[in-house]
Amino acid sequence: MSAALTARERMLGRLRAAAPSAPEAVEAIDTAIDSHYQARRAAAPQSPRQQLDAMQVALRASHAQVDCVGVDAWPALLAQRLGEHGVRRLLLDAGSAEGQALRAALPAGVETLSFERPLAQWKGELFDTVDAGFTVARSGIAATGTLVIAPDAATPRTVSLAPPLHICLVYTSTLHADLHAAARAERWMDGMPANLVLVSGPSKTSDIQQTLAYGAHGPRWLWVLIIDDLSSHEGGQP
Amino acid sequence: MNAKPLQFVKPADFHARARAALDDPKLRQSFRGAMDFLQDKRSAQFPDGDELERLRDIGEAVRRHALARLPDLLVQLEDKLTAAGVQVHWAEDGEQANAIIHAIAQRNQATRFIKGKSMASEEIELNHYLEARGMTCLESDMGEYIVQLAGEKPSHIVMPAIHKTKADIAGLFAEHIPDAPYTEDVDSLIQTGRRALRQAFVDADIGLSGVNFAAADTGTLWLVENEGNGRLTTSVPEVHIAIMGMEKVVAKLEHIVPLASLLTRSATGQAITTYFNLISGPRRAGEKDGPREVHLVLLDNGRSQAYADEQLRATLQCIRCGACMNHCPVYTRIGGHAYGTTYPGPIGKIISPHLLGLDATADLATASSLCGACGEVCPVRIPIPQLLVRLRTEANRNPHEEVTHPLRGQGARFSRGESLIWRFWSGAFARPASYRLFRWAATRLRLLTPRAQLGWTQHRKPLKPAPRSLADLLNARGQEE
């Protein structure tokens, strides 16, 4: 371990010996960043409805399938879609309200399973036999059509990653205008989960002669259900 | 893994490689097409010139601020990560970094690595180090996988297999992947690659990734990718090792927001990539996936040499978008392999001398017309043309001259004869009397000028002084000099 310590001390020593010039005040940079993004949002202010539209447009542009559905209507719609797509094994969090609602709506041919065992115990099974993973996004980012996903014990990281189809539910009331607004509103600076993932479309690559192809490694299909809960949040205002 | 030896080239062979590349019409066509494509995609992402300039100001300020506080930020990052359960390692050079990674593997009795895209690991030639010690290291980025199958190195830092055509890749897959039929259909090729690689994620003991940015305030590693292979690499194996150049830390997580936007728009012309993967620690209690162990290797490998010099420090502002390559008239014509360095193109010309020494890389800084395109597109405003001129100066400096920040390989292109000529030249021009004498002699003895004048006469007529100097002509018209 002493060799590693020496390397650390030598590296830091070399950097400190270079006597860094006085840095620009960090406050000035913070202000510049905040005012840049605020100015952009002020130049094109968006109502929640317009944000919802922007979110859909951006997601479709990145090859996701998007549906904007009412609070009660989505389980039936999704169940029908899953049947059409031929999904047989669906990974979801059966403990969540959304997971329960979906399970209740599914036809008999679709089996649901929860992530109950550590990954190492069923890695191969997850990769080879699970057709779809269902997650609920923490929030969405309208400008880029981005889903903010914070994996946890009930919905771990690989749910949105290993199965070829990823289905994600996002509530309209959680939409932010842009990444800057999301980081600020959710106070990312105060502490981060072990993993936070921003997803903007299905897995893709242009590594072969600049030709865009989907499903390079992660999900080939991304379905997004945007749940329109604005009316309940707007308190019934027109 | 590699059926044939890697086609390693030395940067010192740059001239020969560049000539060979220029003689290869297929290669030139693929680079021309790819670079036009990337240039168009980038410019479409920045329709508002003012916004771009403001964002570049911010990007530059963030990076300069981070570099000015680099040692403190690295310590802060280490503290934050350590508190979250990440083990931080410091490596002065590639050998140390490789040894650290090898030791982690041995402790875990691991032999199978799966790799996300990491230029730092290319820089230290990790794959070969591990393979020589009986371990396998499979590239999972589709482009990196393709060049690994071909036994080559990446030719671009963002699009590693940009020099390969569909047909090349079809041939490679058919040859190397069991049961893969020959097809030039890109979707089928990607699905073939996907099948081959997904099993490797399940089987791998260790996932190794790079890092695009690190935030010191929250202790977060920010990874940018489109394919999902980076997420699989950092989520599925029980151990995750990240390796990053030590300059990549910034003070605050929120500072990464504008940098990430500049990166994806400059690199591939995307408003955002499919995945931003923010890692702030190993699997927490109760979580059922994610690595149980996360390591971060901080790599110096010559970066502190660039850091020591106020002007050259700007090299370390780089966010590895590759826009300078995509817009460089030299890179566009010869491609990345001609350089023989991990980082090709304009950024390669200014970073490689610190990684490899000027003696190995002195020719690179001369491979530029100084047209300024690289500096113009750089999202963090690295003054690349000025740094190229500076490196040319250092390469031609007398190796024995004492300077405040000597560079490794200083004076690699120093020539006593050339320096004498320059001394004579400046002496002749500094004093009016000697200048007149020189002028008189040059016009009268013009027939003695050699017919072959080094590289100049390869494609041009020899330079010869005029029969009469401008001053003589003016005098003849009765005007003062």
Give structural notes:
- The complex is a heterodimer of chains A (about 240) and B (about 475).
- By secondary structure, chain A is an alpha/beta fold.
- Chain A contains 8 helices and 12 strands.
- A 6-stranded parallel beta sheet of chain A has the order 1-12-7-4-2-3, sandwiched between helices. In chain A, strands 8-5-6-9 form a 4-stranded mixed beta sheet. Chain A has a two-stranded antiparallel ribbon with strand order 10-11.
- In chain A, a hairpin with a 7-residue loop joins β10 and β11.
- The model of chain A has no long low-confidence stretch (mean pLDDT about 95).
- In chain B, a hairpin with a 4-residue loop joins β5 and β6.
- The longest helix of chain B has 21 residues.
- The radius of gyration of chain B is 26 Å and the shape is globular.
- In chain B, about 55% of the residues are buried.
- The N terminus of chain B is likely disordered.
- β9 of chain A pairs antiparallel with β9 of chain B, so a sheet runs across the interface.
Classify the secondary structure makeup of chain A into a structural class.
Answer: alpha/beta
The termini of chain B sit apart by 73 Å
Number of helices of chain A: 8
- Level of helix content of chain B? 40-55%
For the largest beta-sheet of chain B, the strand count, sense and barrel status come to:
6 strands, parallel
Largest sheet of chain A: 6 strands, parallel
Model regions low in confidence, pLDDT < 50 over at least 5 residues of chain A: none
- Count the DSSP helices of chain B: 23
Q: What assembly state would you assign to the polypeptide chains in this entry?
A: heterodimer
Mean pLDDT score of chain B? 94
> How many strand elements of chain B?
10
Coarse structural class of chain B: alpha/beta
Strand coverage percent of chain B: 5-15%
What would the average pLDDT of chain A be, to the nearest integer? 93
The largest interface is: A-B, 81 and 102 residues
Radius of gyration of chain B, CA atoms, in whole angstroms: 26 Å
Percentage of β-strand residues of chain A: 15-25%
Terminus-to-terminus distance of chain A: 66 Å
